[in-house]
């Protein structure tokens, strides 16, 4: 007879004792279960003990998490968390250095457990750790252990970062600013200051005033990748917390100190592979720098502003010989006004008053900035562009100003200027760090590309939108290749001519399309079930391989990872936390298990509980697209296992695999693309022998019956 559902068979271990094999009734109070276990070993005072998971992080078992105990789980008997916390905190007050050091060593592995952390915090454990950190009697391993334990306890979110005292923060700042410091201490101190800066605006201002930018530049130039990454994390946190004016001042100073050149040479082109966290911080740095262009992009040109009117005149004068101004004979006001209007028309402005063209936002004044930059830094190319097109009479002239305004909009969209930073993105462009004034330099390349494409298409004014679509595609395809320098970008984008774009479009269309003849459609329908089974098998294999997921909190982007995979028999999901940089764990080393039979449903996007908790801001749009959750039975309640996929492709693969596991339809975009690709390949293989043979739309007609059937053999006639 099968045991009741709320009864699980488990093993309980104890050092120097024979393990117990028991049937745990989940309906019993945990204190009763614990007393029965202690009585079996003749241990008095069962309240002094607690049960823990024997594998993984060895978390304490409480009434809240006891439903995670499954058949075959191995538990161990240990000291109760309140007594353990009391003992550890007693050691922290020890007069001897050795006693305090040993207590810290015991505290660090336990601090990640929520139950133990609450006991420590309730006994002023954070205050005692603060005292150790502030005293700084030992600047080596003991201080590193103290900072690690403090960070682990704060990560639980029980205590706000805003409650930290100013003297404590200043002491941590001193460890960052100190020259001769243990290599293990400064990354931890930088990580702590990053959390403070992101969580508390007031303390963030203190960190900003106490940590010189030059000091962070020193940390960025070390060989230690961990220290380098944490220094970059604090730098981007300080930039995010600054106002627009402060951010511009800080970035101007950093660029003057050659930060861009250092990142390009020593981080992007480093021999060691770049970590995900560093890639994210470079993305944030790029986004914040490009974000400085947003005020110009959102500001229309003021026709009554004398400075802006002079800049417009400078743009005109750079292209045309100032006839009246250079010669000795002056021009009348009407003649000069008429000449200016004609020359602005030749420049490609749509209105007689060019200020009206620049009232559109975006791109606002940013378009004028781009045009002036091009005229000053590439004067020959600018003059050639304008004069070549202004002298044409066949309606094939390319309007410089109109093209520049629209091209600026395209570049702002492709580079996401003015958009909030994503919490997880790593999509930075190496080319951005290879060049000063990268946005304006990119415009100079793009406007010349536009002129080249215009001539290749033999376009007229009516084809303007079509040309802009082609140029946008050329730029997007080239940016996707992530060229490492502007010159490499120029080379690649010029190779991508209009003819090449048409060829790529045709190739992609042929890959996406198939013949629509009814016999082929019928063949494809017959092949679909077999190929869907192949896709399902691939998705389940991907789940069995497992994947690293990053933990995301509502407060900040955490750098903790966890691993999840499906067992080979497809019956259990196994998961657990892992350290960054470590090899993927083995199936046996993962402490947590979730039987597939307990799963209720798969949730995606805004339906996920961990996304709903973060709010609905624009900055969380990327999380909506990558979030999914599994709801499962947790006793009589419903619990969730929450995921944030590293990429859109991984999101599709995992949600498809989980849908297949639950017997649901795999309806992702990736499944549709994979099925289409497999159908196209399989259909082509089946039709190889029919190459160049036209397939009729309708099957050939059945011929009429013959007039007689004398040709049939009569079996009733016996042969002699």
Automatic annotation (TrEMBL):
<comment type="function">
    <text>Involved in cytoskeletal rearrangements required for phagocytosis of apoptotic cells and cell motility. Acts in association with DOCK1 and CRK. Was initially proposed to be required in complex with DOCK1 to activate Rac Rho small GTPases. May enhance the guanine nucleotide exchange factor (GEF) activity of DOCK1.</text>
</comment>
<dbReference type="InterPro" id="IPR011993">
    <property type="entry name" value="PH-like_dom_sf"/>
</dbReference>
<dbReference type="InterPro" id="IPR050868">
    <property type="entry name" value="ELMO_domain-containing"/>
</dbReference>
<dbReference type="GO" id="GO:0007015">
    <property type="term" value="P:actin filament organization"/>
</dbReference>
<dbReference type="InterPro" id="IPR011989">
    <property type="entry name" value="ARM-like"/>
</dbReference>
<keyword id="KW-0581">Phagocytosis</keyword>
<feature type="domain" description="ELMO">
    <location>
        <begin position="307"/>
        <end position="479"/>
    </location>
</feature>
<dbReference type="Pfam" id="PF11841">
    <property type="entry name" value="ELMO_ARM"/>
</dbReference>
<dbReference type="Pfam" id="PF16457">
    <property type="entry name" value="PH_12"/>
</dbReference>
<dbReference type="GO" id="GO:0006915">
    <property type="term" value="P:apoptotic process"/>
</dbReference>
<protein>
    <submittedName>
        <fullName>Engulfment and cell motility protein 3 isoform X2</fullName>
    </submittedName>
</protein>
<dbReference type="Pfam" id="PF04727">
    <property type="entry name" value="ELMO_CED12"/>
</dbReference>
<dbReference type="GO" id="GO:0048870">
    <property type="term" value="P:cell motility"/>
</dbReference>
<dbReference type="GO" id="GO:0017124">
    <property type="term" value="F:SH3 domain binding"/>
</dbReference>
<dbReference type="InterPro" id="IPR001849">
    <property type="entry name" value="PH_domain"/>
</dbReference>
<keyword id="KW-0053">Apoptosis</keyword>
<dbReference type="InterPro" id="IPR016024">
    <property type="entry name" value="ARM-type_fold"/>
</dbReference>
<dbReference type="InterPro" id="IPR024574">
    <property type="entry name" value="ELMO_ARM"/>
</dbReference>
<dbReference type="InterPro" id="IPR006816">
    <property type="entry name" value="ELMO_dom"/>
</dbReference>
<keyword id="KW-0729">SH3-binding</keyword>
<dbReference type="GO" id="GO:0006909">
    <property type="term" value="P:phagocytosis"/>
</dbReference>
